[in-house]
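Input record (Table S2, row 297):
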Amino acid sequence: MEISSNRKKNIISAIVMGSFGVAYGGAKSVAKSMQKLETEFMKNVKPEYFSYLNSDELQSVQKLLNKGMTEKELNMFSRIWKIPDKKQFLEEALDIFIGDTGYKYLKPKLTYDTSDDEGFFRWTNFSINIPRLEKRSKVDILGVLKHEIVHFKQYVSMLRTEGIGAEGILENEKENIFNRLKNDAGFMKNKSESEAKLIANYYNYLYRDILFVREQIALESLGSIPANSAEGKKAREYLAAVKNYVSVNRSSDAADVKKYEENLLEHEAFSAGDALEDKYGDFILTLAEDKKKLQVK
Ligand SMILES: [Zn+2]
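Output record (zinc ion complex):
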């Protein structure tokens, strides 16, 4: 099963909804207040972040810090926003998301195609696919990348949790495939339940080796998660959510779309992806807006 993000979303409205344009407010002269902002900015942000922005841009993004954007996000946006090539843009963003953490040994491979999906994470080979790059905005694809990274981390979490691991994921999936086939009238028309079981087993064996290798890497690089810890309990909920997962496409009915969006795996991924999308939209618009102002003067 693929964990996808098929929800239709109007990206422009997402950008516009993110507020921007906080006034400089209060200071007698603009120059003086700009200077003050820069001083504040220099105090609050690490020097290595500066190189990515020129001084005008620096003034602009100060407003975002004041609005609750974190330094980490600001640093990331500053590093990627001028990369023209969308694949490079995403690769760089992925590197920043993963950072120098244990996740880097499991880093998903980015793939690109022309499918109709918004994007998906494949647990079978740990890849993230982001389709139709040339037709989509960077704000959109950055949000999708974040969304899929959440799915990636959900699976890593399951791999690391005592009592789940590769075996738990595979058994869960085997059951899912079997149930899906058993309830598929088309399949059952000329096939038996034992054939459905055979196919489910076949998938289990197909991905077994690679998933156990990943479990080993995850345990070595990030450590195991005790079953009774908060993280361990969450991982159990992920596993249950995989079982209840409803895939949707553009012709799915509203009830299924609702189930899909309320699924824990998707709920977490949409929250994080949408929030980042809004913030990056905010960042870009703030810079663009201020550039316009500067040109008018
Ligand atoms: Zn998703």
